[in-house]
Amino acid sequence: MTEKKELAANNKMKSFWTLQGVSLTVNPGEAVGLIGINGSGKRTLTEILAGRLKQTTGFTTLDAKINYASSRAGLSENLTGLENIKKQIGQADIDELKAKHLLNRIIDFCELGNWLYRPVKEYSIGMYARLSLAIAMFLEPEMLVIDNVLNVLDIPYSQQVNQKLRELKDAGVALIIADVNLVNVERFCERTLWLQFGKVQQLGPTADVMLQYEYFQDWLRNASLPEKNEYFAKKQQASQDFDIAKVYEEFKIEQFKHGFTRKDEPKMRRAFFKEKGSDPIADASKTPAKGTVQNKKQHFKKKIILAVIAFLCVVGIGSWGYLSRANKQTAVDKKETVLTSSQKRTSSLKKQSVAKDKKSSLAASESSASAKRASSSSAKAASSSAAASSKAAAASSASESSLKANTQTINVNSGDTLEGLAQKYATDVNTIKKINNISSEADLKAGSVIRVPK
């Protein structure tokens, strides 16, 4: 990869990191989604995984044959579609009989007709995606990296692609799917990685990550322009100030835990900053492969694919702005503020209660027994009312949380109505409004993403 890039601002050049300490492991047959707002580093990460880009520091340990599909990269644009297919098959080192079979299968699957004899530079983005994906799926991948391809395919063809991807997944092929359409990620992926400002914001079960990502998008839509500008400025500054030395220290500690010593530190530093190959820990745990190509394939099936980006850091250039972990920190700060305020309010109420109790005691000693009973009855009624109110609030909060947790995301198509969607997903209009915080049919716009009950 090129050296650390520069960002021009106020007639001065400033550097920033496009990826910061990303670590990921993928297993055979597993699909991992990659989401994040524009400029979060998704494409950089997919190109590193596919071997098209070299990280600035850190390691990539890849024990698999990786195929890459993109809607705008990977093909030779001056060659025709057919020439691109033949070129990729030739590079795959496949025998002649099998090569002819694969050629016919790819031609049939991409359904480009006479366009196969035209230069790729004349293709639309959808045609480019078809050809790239067809080649990647049929050239016997062990891991398939799909970079923003599924969202540009037309509906009939995408159904055909979905079926093929499921077949590959069932056969043990690992999938990395980066897509701006969250429905495509939810359809295939058990786990999802949310990239934000080049950092891993969250990695976990897809449903959990999607829910948090939607909360973040809601915050972004509702934030005022000054709030966004201030937030962008802080995050951009953080990407410029990122200290790679801290990441190296974490890496060094991890190496020591696995038996490396201080004597090995020069080698570790060279591996991390200069060589940038495989992770030394992974290399030390490997048994040298022996035997035929068939033995290697059997070995792959028995062990996990190590698509590990250990402390991966990449630098880039651009004028960009987007949100990151500070949103999470802001929420924590707000929570602490509310908690402190609540504690102060409780303390004040306790003091007032003690003072009132003293006055009530004096009044009670001077009043009749009937006044005592009336006071006691009033206190019990107030206590019961407060308890009922608390239970109702808790029940309402739990109900809302449960309602949103048992939902799925869908794309709103032209002509969709609240009543039509309610019938399609066996629910009612009010439920859809409540889940998505919308008030009328006018809020339902084609191309938007909403949630409906599962």
Written overview of the protein:
The protein has 454 residues and is of the alpha/beta class. The chain folds into 3 domains: 16-65 and 141-316, Rossmann fold (3-Layer(aba) Sandwich), CATH 3.40.50; 325-385; 403-454, LysM domain (Membrane-bound Lytic Murein Transglycosylase D, Chain A), CATH 3.10.350. Helices cover 53% and strands 15% of the residues. The protein has 16 helices and 13 strands. The strands form 4 sheets. Strands 6-7-8-4-9-10 form a 6-stranded mixed β-sheet, with helices on both faces. A 3-stranded antiparallel β-sheet has the order 3-11-5, sandwiched between helices. It has a two-stranded antiparallel sheet with strand order 1-2. Strand 1 and strand 2 form a beta hairpin. The radius of gyration is 29 Å and the shape is globular. The relative contact order is 0.14. The model is unreliable at 1-5, 286-351 and 361-369 (pLDDT under 50).
The domain count comes to 3
Alpha carbon gap, first and last residue: 45 Å
Strand order of the largest sheet: 6-7-8-4-9-10
Strand content: 15-25%
- What's the number of extended β-strand segments? 13
Helix content: 40-55%
Question: Can you identify the CATH superfamily of the largest domain?
Answer: P-loop containing nucleotide triphosphate hydrolases
CATH class of the largest domain: Alpha Beta
What's the shape? globular
Radius of gyration, in Å, reads: 29 Å
What's the pLDDT, averaged over the residues? 72
Unreliable stretches (pLDDT < 50, length at least 5) are 1-5, 286-351, 361-369
Oligomer: single chain
Order of helices and strands: EEEEHEEHHHEHEHEEHHHHHHEHHEHHE
Number of helices: 16
Q: Report the CATH topology name of the largest domain.
A: Rossmann fold
What CATH architecture of the largest domain do you see?
A: 3-Layer(aba) Sandwich
Main sheet makeup: 6 strands, mixed
Structural class: alpha/beta
